[in-house]
Amino acid sequence: PVPVTPYKRIINYTLRANKQGMFTMPSISEFFGIVIRMYYDDHYPAHFHAYYGEFEAIIDINNIALIRGKLPPRVLALVVEWSAKNQLALADNWNLARNRMPLKDIAPLE
Prior knowledge:
With 110 residues, this protein is α+β, with helices and mostly antiparallel strands. Helices cover 23% and strands 32% of the residues. It has helices at residues 73-85, 87-98; strands at residues 7-10, 13-16, 27-31, 34-37, 47-52, 55-60, 65-70. The longest helix is centred in the C-terminal third of the chain and has 13 residues, at 73-85.
């Protein structure tokens, strides 16, 4: 028989657990309909993923710049503002993710 992989439902997304039982893309913040996530086994440069409806963007943490993807202009501006205010916390979470440690929630933009 094939082993059953555990799943977790997070904000309308189903995520698959890796071999260590950690969900590979936890949500670390949510504001104004924007969901911020970070993969555990992701590539450099240090970055996070921002989701808004059907849109997704990958944002560089160090440069606070769009790497790939698309968000509506106003949403991108909110994500940039939030990431500038939380750059150190984002960098800390990136390091935690690289070391397969639980990520910390980051306060939403208000």
